[in-house]
Structure formats: C-alpha cells, structure tokens
Amino acid sequence: MAEKRDFLDDIIDMSQDFKAIKNPLAEIANSLAAEPGEIPVWNPADYKERPRPAPPSCTSCKSKDPTTCTRCIDVCPKGSIHIEGGGIEIDDTCIKCGLCVSACPSESYHAREINANKLYDRIAGAAASHETAYVTCTRALGRLPRENEVVLPCIGVVPSEVWLALMVRFSHLSIYLPLGICDRCRTTTGEEVYCDLIARAETWAGFGLDLVVDEADLTCEMRRSWQRKEFVETILKSGERLVSRTNPVLTAARRVTHMLDAHKKQMSALQRQLDKAVGTTSSKNRRRILLDRRKIMMGALQKHPELAANIDLYEPLCDMDACTLCGACEQVCPTHCIEITDDGRWSCEPEFCVQCGACEHVCPTKAIEYEFCDASDIVLPDEEERDRKEKEAEQKAEMEKLKEQGKASMLKGLDMLEKLSDSLADNDR
C-alpha cells in the first residue's frame, strides 16, 4: 500500500531536488579536490581486527584445564587458538574472522568493533534511519558500504542475544549474502556458526530475518518519518541561528546518537536495578558480573516480557547429597553467580549465569547438572514504564476529580440560578 503523503513531504522532496540542481557537480568537485589519501577506498582489512584474549575470565584458564571449555577452539577455522598453562595464545595464522568473540560464553575475547555493545550500536544506527538495514560480510559486499549497510568480517560475530534485541526493535533488518558466497570463504566454520546463532534468535523472537541474495535488490532509502522529523527540527534550528549567530547542524547522525544514548541509559538502569535486587557482591565479596550480551537480552525482555516463554534458558542445580562443598564450581564461575555460604548453602543467581558449563565440568562428584528454567526469572520489571503508567493513572484520577468538582459547581450554580429565578418571580407577583 502506498505511503500517505502530505504537503510537508512535497517540501522535503523539493528541497532535496533544489540542492542537487543548485550544485550538480558537488560530488565530482569534492573528489577532485580531495587529497589522494583522503579518498575512501574499499579495503576488507579495514573491517577486521585481531581479538585480544583475556585469560582471567576464561573458564579453561581459571580451571587450568584446557578441556573445560573449547568453544573458541572449535569455531576457529585455522586452529589459531591455543589454551595451555592458564593462558591463551592466538598465533599468526589468525584470519581475524572474529568468531571466537561470539563463541566465548564468558566474553574472554575483546575487539573494538565487534563486541556486543558496538555491534548493537552499528546495526541499530543503520536501522533507525533507513527503510531497510543490511548486515553483510566483507566477502559478500566487496565495495564501500552505504549508510544502511553494516559490514562485518563474518556474520557469525553477532551473538543471538544481540540479534534478539535488534529484531524486536527493528522489523526491517535483512541479511545480504549471495548464494554460494560461503562455499569459497576461508572462514570455513562461519556459515554453521551464523546459521545457529540467527536460528536461535529467530526462535526467541518468534519471527525470522529477511535474506537478500541479489545486490540489485539492495536499497538505500531514508525512512520518511525520520526525514520529516529531521526537516522540522532543522527548520526550528534555523530560527535559532538567526538569533544566536551559531550554526548547530542537526543531522541524522546526531539523532542516532541520541537513540543509542537512550539505550545505554536503559542498560545502566537495568544494571542498577539488578544490583539493588540481588546485591552487587556475594557473601565472599566477589563482585557479580553481568556480561554485555546477557544485559542486552535482559533489556529486550524487559520491553517484551511475553518473549520469555520462547527463551531456552538453563541454570545449574546442585545435588547437596553428592556435593562436598569443595568450592571448585564457585572458583571457576566467570560471572561469580555461584555462591557457597559459610553455613553450607549452595545458590546460583540465574540473571548472571551464562550457561558456560564450567561448574558442571569441574565438579569432582558430578553433583551439578543443568536443568531448564523459566526465563521469566530474569525479566526485570520496567520501572520507567511502571512510573509512566502510575503517572497516567494519577493524572486520570485528578481529571476525574476535577470533573466531579466542575459538575458539582455547575449543579450548584444552576441551583442558585433556579432560586434566583423563583425569587424574581415572587417579586413580580
């Protein structure tokens, strides 16, 4: 169905056309005037980086047992990762695919551009301002990306939790991968990884992502609602410039920044709310760690609690008859969600548990097993939404009160008029 248009849409189109007519050779002139080194050139290496390992949070390093967790080793297409002696080594055969970053449950690999928060910001920034946002890889695109195209070393670097948060907020996300593009890729494990991660996110969200296989089908059109708001705000800023003699340019990039800042504030508020609910530290002063991808997923569930029924969440449970209270599980836990108190009580905070399986692996008596749990246990109430509803209820109650007062005053006034009318009638007699 065609999108409804009005006079404001026509003004926006005319202003854009006028700019092109006024300076039709602007792009050519800018490219000729620029220094050769300043002209952007497609280079796949610009979108790749070598992850930096963080052994202190790695469960295999903490347990001094390289078999505790081998997920990063399993997904590495070149066998570049070696864990031994409590340390992690990435050798020179690394092709910077980034799969180890998304595979590690304890987030023990760090990369500036492909961590959970950065990936969310990049994809959300493209999706917020355009009709469709495309996520693709360097091999598939092969050129400089447009504003709504997010290029990654491999699509498998995006965790399921990030996909879920993006999908429930933006319904117009697409994957761009030409048919057979993964068959000749050096990242031989990438296709299986991203298929599993996306399939899991689609199960959680209850719907699927679109797939584009032909480059001719890629579009780059800014959302009409975004253009309208930006145009109106630009007009308002133009009036301010006449008074202040300044030049504050309100661009789409600034509005994207405001949106992402709001998301960061939500994540910070969620962290504070969780700290208030379960405490920041255990009884042994170990600070509990809420990893970024879990925080992002909890933020999505906070806005859409009905999706908790779709989440396959597991948590460790301990058979106290078999437990010797050795503390091995407590020591190896990367988020410190497991706690053994001085009086012999074993507990786990499901909000912080990342299902790494390390506690189950290191338990000498096999007293720990993972069991399915209700994901609603990790859904925190949306305090902002609750406050908004309470405020609306108060305003509604106040309006009803004022309405009743107005009605009483009106009846009282009518009664007085009626008495006055009767009094005047008696005087006339």
Structural class: alpha/beta
Distance between the termini: 74 Å
Radius of gyration over C-alpha positions, nearest whole angstrom:
29 Å
**Overall average residue pLDDT:** 82
| β-strand amount | 5-15%
Total number of distinct structural domains: 3
| Portion of residues within helices | 40-55%
Order of helices and strands: HHEHHEEHEHEHEHEHEHHHEHEEHEH
Reported for the largest beta sheet, the result is: 4 strands, parallel
Figure out the total of helices: 15
Number of distinct beta strands: 12
- The shape is flat
Unreliable parts: 16-22, 240-250
Strand order of the largest sheet: 6-5-7-8
Explain this structure.
Keywords: 4Fe-4S, Coiled coil, Iron, Iron-sulfur, Metal-binding. Residues 253-280 form a coiled coil. Residues 386-406 have a biased composition (Basic and acidic residues). The protein is of the alpha/beta class. It has three domains: 44-222, no CATH class; 224-263; 286-297 and 306-378, Alpha-Beta Plaits (2-Layer Sandwich), CATH 3.30.70. 46% of the residues lie in helices and 11% in strands. The protein contains 15 helices and twelve strands. A four-stranded parallel β-sheet has the order 6-5-7-8. A two-stranded antiparallel sheet has the order 1-4. Strands 2-3 form a two-stranded antiparallel ribbon. The chain is flat.
